[in-house]
Write a structure and sequence with these properties.
The complex is a heterodimer of chains A (about 280) and B (about 120). With about 280 residues, chain A is mainly α. Helix content of chain A is about 65%, strand content about 0%. Chain A contains 16 helices and no strands.
Chain lengths: ~280, ~120
């Protein structure tokens, strides 16, 4: 192994903070967060702020009108998206649109894995009859951001992990932990801290491989965990390795899912995946 | 499935997803055949594109080869989780749906009924 590879956890965390080109939280997302915290802010005000950036607005509307949400009416403005999908979902879409280029650049297939996991999260939430399917979908969309940090900011560490993964049936995060003593879940956590992301997005980023540790919203984390497994089992996209990871039985039992639920979940998911191929470029 | 603009749609094509009006009212179900009447109605409703099932240019042999390759890759993906009954159920569901899709694709590729032998004729 190359000497320059960072193996120590504390050093890695320091390194992540120190990295000059650590992606900064898109200014607009920080602004929206501040506005949303103020109870007096109206949807129209937030809508006006996002609409100022026409490229961003177009990307957000394209995702809002995609098969993700299966809207029967076209969402034609940001303020309409805010009313129909809610602040948190639109914020997640703004964030996703802002980091889209980074995800695309980091690893071939990771964007497809991300939108696939998002669609699968939505499908599981729908079959469970939850009313927060859209929020869970956004958490699925961003769950692997830690891999983007690894690929873009720690390329040497990324290279040794990929080499290990290529050698045998080993999962990406197992290889990370074996070689580096930290993994993309830690990197995601540190990025979420650095960006001041809401815990509803940070917790699934941190715990989608250990959903039984979740405290704030264990059910949402469990859904993203199972969605990750489902989308990998379909072979849609590429998350660094080509294996179906082990399932956390506490997460499965928490959601009270049954084995027969896989059929309706996959029946919702498959037509969405076919349509989402359009989203593989949202430029 | 393929999404095509309405002016490229033709009678005989099969809808790959249901069609709804902009206010959500159902116009035609998934799986129904495109007719002249449906095309006129869609034009009146300002529907710009439809999704149709496509015979994708593969031969029946290629459809079967692709299916077998899919099964082999599926086995490889599940190599680390063979003991899990839950994930075995997931794998079986994926195979069930892939087999269904294979049969539907083969049905689209089949020659029109009048030229193929009927079930009774085919029997020895």
């Amino acid at each position: 192994m190359a000497k320059s590879v960072i193996q120590d956890r504390a050093q890695a965390k320091k390194e992540v903070r120190r990295i000059k080109n650590l992606p900064t939280v898109p200014g607009i997302v920080a602004k929206i967060s501040r506005m949303v915290e103020n109870p007096e802010t109206s949807a129209a005000e937030v809508g006006r702020l996002i609409s100022q950036d026409q490229v961003l607005s177009a990307k957000v509307l394209r995702m809002a009108n995609s098969a993700f949400f299966g809207m029967s009416r076209k969402i034609s403005s940001i303020s309409q998206a805010l009313v129909i999908l809610g602040f948190d979902v639109v914020k997640g879409l703004v964030l996703t649109s802002s980091v889209f280029d980074m995800i695309q650049k980091s690893m071939a297939g990771l964007w497809e894995h991300s939108i696939g996991c998002a669609a699968a999260s939505g499908a599981v939430a729908t079959v469970l009859g939850r009313d927060d399917a859209e929020e869970i979908l956004v958490a699925g969309l961003l769950h692997d951001l830690g891999k983007v940090v690894l690929a873009l900011n720690l390329p040497e560490e990324m290279a040794v992990v990929l080499k290990k993964v290529a050698e045998g049936p080993i999962l990406f995060y197992e290889a990370e932990n074996e070689l580096l003593d930290f993994d993309h879940c830690d990197l995601g956590e540190w990025l979420a801290e650095h960006w001041n992301l809401p815990e509803s997005l940070a917790e699934p980023m941190r715990l989608h491989h250990r959903p039984e540790k979740a405290v704030l919203n264990p059910e949402r984390v469990a859904i993203v965990h199972i969605a990750d497994i489902i989308i990998r089992s379909k072979g849609f996209g590429h998350a660094g390795d080509l294996l179906v990871p082990p399932i956390s039985m506490p997460a499965w039992e928490l959601l009270k899912l049954r084995k027969t639920d896989f059929l309706p979940i996959l029946e919702i998911l498959e037509p969405k995946l076919a349509s989402l191929r359009d989203l593989t470029s949202i430029q | 499935m393929k999404r095509i603009p309405l002016d490229k749609a033709a009678p005989g094509q099969i809808l790959a997803e249901k069609l709804t009006r902009h206010d959500g009212v159902l116009l035609a179900n998934q799986g129904s055949e495109v007719t002249e009447g449906l095309l006129r109605m869609l034009a009146r409703q300002n529907i710009e594109s439809i999704a149709i099932e496509e015979a994708d240019g593969r031969t029946p042999e290629e459809v079967l080869t692709d299916y077998l390759r899919f099964l082999a890759e599926l086995e490889e993906r599940f190599v680390r989780v063979k003991e899990s009954q839950v994930l075995l159920a997931l794998k079986k569901t994926i195979i069930f749906l892939a087999a269904k899709e294979r049969d539907e694709t083969l049905a689209l590729l089949a020659p029109p009924l009048e030229t193929s032998p009927t079930a009774t004729e085919a029997k020895p």
